[in-house]
Amino acid sequence: MESLLLTSVNEPQSVSDLITQPPLAPAIIQITADEREEITSIGKYLKRKYGSYERADYIAALHMNAFRLLPERIVRLLNRLGTDFSARQYGAVVLKGLIEVDHEALGATPASWREMDKERIVEYGFISSLLHGAVPSKPVQYYAQRKGGGLLHAIIPDAGMAWSQTGSGSKTELFVHTEDAFLFNAADFLSFLYLRNEEQVPSMLYSIRSHQQDAAVLQPLFAPIYTCPKDANYAGQEAIGEGITTSVLYGNSKAPFIRFDAAEQIYNTEAGQSAGAMEHLKAFWKEARELIYCDFIPESGDLIFVNNHLCAHGRSAFTAGFRNEGGNMVPCERRMMLRMMSKTSLLHIQQVAHPYNPYLVMEEHYGKVYTSVQN
Ligand SMILES: [Fe+2]
């Protein structure tokens, strides 16, 4: 059954399938009880051995630990995501039931990410980082998000940010976007580990691979004419930046990569798109919206692993702290998710990295580096 799951979505059955059937959904891999137990105990073991997943000696040995410790089936799966960028690759995979979450040890969901006791999520940081290590890819942090804020970010609905287009929002749909579409050096891979989703919020994924290869709406997106303001954590002129334009699609013309943020590039009235650029974006979005996959409702312990060049992510609107029980909204613990980002090459981000921390990306907006920060 498991091998069937592995091959059912992304494996072409024949050459003609490869050409005629774009992937429309991520593979959903059911993690076995043995694998889950193994992974959970690896997290505890690494916590005992290293204490912190941000320790230099742990990160330096990340790939060795990933290949040595993780179940082989999971390593192979992630290796494949790190090497297959073909027309048949959806660009995301769901690891269902990856870990056992100890809800008592985790405690109540804090008011926002600022109050998160990082000690309570250390094991999950080790597990997430090992998965990135298996790709292989190296966990990094971005000054543009939480001024770095560590390699693992708790994503928690924040009452004060409920209407925002950010991870802290809840009351509006978070439009699909590739992470940090306003940077040239955005993450290559993302992981989203769900500790709680009692509100039953569906996650959204959208893959550039889901279009027909010769879709007319794609070609204009290779032109470097599109603006992308910084995300909703910024406002006004600070968000618009220097008005640099770039392409939405790049790389192979038949199997492109994507850098796209629907909220910032289409719905942000201050984005400063030209009329022509907006026309192309809207034509593309009309087709893309129909290809969004939103059938997956993450449960506690599930993880979504994403190639940020192929697949955008988002989520439906929800009422934080309430779940629907037979038509009645009853209180529940608020949603909590852990995000990690990684780059496959540290060498290639050093022109925008912090001089004393090669894992901290200091890019502010399309190649521009923060200048007002003390190094
Ligand atoms: Fe995001």
UniProtKB/TrEMBL annotation:
Annotated signal sequence range? none
* Keyword Iron on entry: yes
Q: Where does Fe cation bind?
A: H177, E179
Domain of life of the native organism: Bacteria
UniProt keyword NAD, yes or no:
no
- Per its record, what are the GO molecular function terms? 2-oxoglutarate-dependent dioxygenase activity; iron ion binding
**Keyword vocabulary terms for this entry:** Iron, Metal-binding, Oxidoreductase
List the SUPFAM superfamilies. Answer: Clavaminate synthase-like (SSF51197)
Q: Which family does it belong to?
A: Belongs to the clavaminate synthase family.
Protein's recorded name: Uncharacterized protein
Species of provenance: Filimonas lacunae
Lineage at the top is: Bacteria, Pseudomonadati, Bacteroidota, Chitinophagia, Chitinophagales
